[in-house]
Amino acid sequence: MNQTIQDIFNRKSTRVFTDEPITAEEKKIILESALQAPTAGNMALYSILDIQEQYLKEELAKRCDNQPFIAKAPLVLIFLADFQKWYDIFNAYCEETPVIGEADLFLASQDCVIAAQNAVVAAQSMGIGSCYIGDIMENFEINRELFHLPTYALPYSMVVFGKPTQQQKDRQKPKRFELEDIVHTNIYQQKSLEETQAMFEKQSEKSGEEFKTFITAFANRKFYVDFRKEMNRSARAMLKQWTEN
C-alpha cells in the first residue's frame, strides 16, 4: 500500500486541534491541491473562501449548530458552488443571455466537493487533520449577506483544518461499510429489510436490542432534528435563488 492510499485509509475527522499553526507553505499546498482537482470542462465551477477573521470563525461556529471547535481551527475554508464567473463572461460576450439551471448547480456541486476532498487528502499527507462541516448549508440568507455572495455562488461545503491532538490521533476511526454492501454490479440491487439490517449490524457491530437502540438514537440525532429542517429550508432557498433569476 503506497503512502497516498495509506493516508486515505488513515484519515478521520479531527475536531480538537493543537495550538501549532498551519504554516503559509502548508496552506498554499492545501489550496493548490484543491485547484488540481478534476472539474467539469476545466471550468472550476467553485470558489473558495479562506476565512481568516476570528469574528467570522466564531460566527460560523454559532451558526453551524454551536460547534466551538470551528472557531479554534487554524484554517477554515468554505467551498462555494460557483457559476457566477461563467455567467458574467457569457453574458458579456454571447448574444443570448445565459440561463443557469439545475444541472449547472449539480455540476458546480460536484466540482465543489471534489476540490474539497483534494484539499483534505493533501492536508492528511502533511499530518494536518480536517473535518467537513455540512451545517454550512444552513442559514443561507444570513450567510449570503455575511459573505457578500452573488446569485450564482452558494455555500456548499466547509472544511476546517488543524494539527490533531494526540487524543485525536489515537481515536479509533469509525468502521466503514464493506465492499459487498455498497458496491452493486451493473444495476442497483435493492436489499431486503433483513439484508439491510445485516449490513448495518456489521457496520455498527451491534445486534438485538442494542442495535435497535443504536438506530433510533442515530435517527433522533441526525434525522428527526431541527437542524435538518433548517438545512432543507436553506437548500430550497438556494435552489430557488439559483433557478428563478
Task: Explain the overall architecture.
The structure is a single chain. The protein is of the alpha+beta class and 245 residues long. It has a domain of 171 residues: NADH Oxidase, CATH 3.40.109.10. It is built from 12 helices and 4 strands. The protein has a 4-stranded antiparallel β-sheet, with helices on both faces. Helix 2 runs antiparallel to helix 6. The relative contact order is 0.16. The mean pLDDT is 96.
Key words describing this protein structure:
single chain; 245 residues; alpha+beta; NADH Oxidase; 12 helices; 53% helix; 11% strand
* CATH class category label of the domain at 3-173: Alpha Beta
The CATH homologous superfamily of the domain at 3-173: NADH Oxidase
Specify the overall morphology. Answer: globular
Number of strand segments: 4
- The averaged pLDDT comes out at 96
| Termini gap | 49 Å
Binned strand content: 5-15%
Radius of gyration: 20 Å
CATH-defined fold name of the domain at 3-173: NADH Oxidase
Give the ordered list of helices and strands: HHEHHEHHEHEHHHHH
Q: Which structural class best describes the helix and strand composition?
A: alpha+beta
Biggest sheet character: 4 strands, antiparallel
Output the number of helix runs: 12
Low-confidence stretches: none
Order the strands across the largest sheet as they lie in space: 1-2-4-3
- Overall helicity: 40-55%
Short description:
The protein has 12 helices and 4 strands; from the N terminus they run ααβααβααβαβααααα.
